Amino acid sequence: MANKLSSEVAHFNSQPHNFRILVLTNLVYAFVLPVIDIFVAAYVMRNSNDPTKVVIYQLTIYTGIPLTFLLNGFLLKHFNIRKLYSIGMMLSAVSMMVMMSLKTLDLTGIGIAGIIMGMSFGFYWSNRDYLALAITNDGNRNYYYGLETFFYTIIAVVIPVVIGWFIESHDGAAAVQRAYSIITGVVLVITILASVVCFRGHFTNPVQRKFVYFKFHPLWYRMLFLALLKGLAQGFLVTAPAMLIMRLLGKEGALGTAQSVGAIIAAITMYVLGRITKPSHRVAVFAGGLILFTMAAVINGILFNGLGVILFMLFLLMAKPLMDLAYFPIQFQVIDVLSKIEKRGEFAYILNHEAGLYVGRFMGAGVFLLLAYGYSVEIALRYAIIIIAVLQLYSIILSKRIIKESQALGAEAPAPADTIDPVEATMHSV
């Protein structure tokens, strides 16, 4: 066992400096993600007891993300990518501070906090996606995302339990509010630490080219449709666990425990898959995640009780990382190929891809809101996920076609001589 661990550490250390720094930056920031994804939604649910407000909060976040992606493209002309990446991480703490300062959770206050959180995600993900694309290649992307997912899932074992029971250890509304405020302060400290780690990297900005386009190769439109299908789940799934658990189990402690069930097994599985799978395995990995997601949705719809929520979380704990492990390398493979064919900077595709996600997120959230207002919140919580999961199954067929076409185009399109290799570019600072 010791020899195996030493071998894995040596494999990680053999990766380029920027590869390691980006993984470590995201590892530190990973301690914040469960708080953002779960407990902020739980805070809204606890103080409003209105699932529709949670979804509206999520919609404002998703509105801020593409706008900030666009803003980030312009700011990259004037600021180093490390600064913008760090600002994105720290804005998540600012958003939580705004939320905690609200005396009543009205739609205006929720909207402001949501837009700031959306800006946080926009700066974070636009720069993170570019850097991940720049420092990896098609051969090591499975390892990169397997490694990240391993750390994220391990952290998901500890953080939800610790925070959930920390909140429950405080009696009374004032004490619970104080507990959430303490958590917000810790989040701020962690985001600052993640920023310090980020500045150890020698990251360079994307080559400055035009990055807003409205016409693309037909392959990219298929990739956008795949992004739309992915966004369907994101539009509702980020806050669905919190809403289900707060409604059916009722306590943050139960929320934390449910998040941690099976996480160790999931983490090890993701790491192993990242190490041993090849690009040819991506459709199978993607299909596995989508099928598990559908099973989770059906179980939740049939049972719709405490046991159903725990099983839903258990299946989801495996489904989400499996989908991401395959999805991001597929996306980056398409960008690698089309950026050479169309002679455009990679950031143009990262920005446009966010538009596909945005449309899907609104449609996914819209399914929930239509069922909630047209029928009932219970119907929405029970059946919206099933509808979305079934629609997402088409992603299996679509991803297979996208991979086949991108491989064919990649074989036909050599890199232009005047193109700067983004992997080599990241080895030098601006």
From TrEMBL:
Asked if Nucleus is a keyword of the record, the answer is no
The record lists the membrane-crossing segments as 21-43, 55-75, 84-102, 108-125, 145-167, 179-199, 219-245, 257-276, 283-303, 379-397
Name of the molecule in the record = MFS transporter
Q: Name one Pfam family in it.
A: MFS_1
Q: What are the UniProt keywords, alphabetically?
A: Membrane, Transmembrane, Transmembrane helix
Keyword Membrane found: yes
Against SUPFAM superfamilies, the record matches this protein to: MFS general substrate transporter (SSF103473)
The molecular function GO annotations come to: transmembrane transporter activity
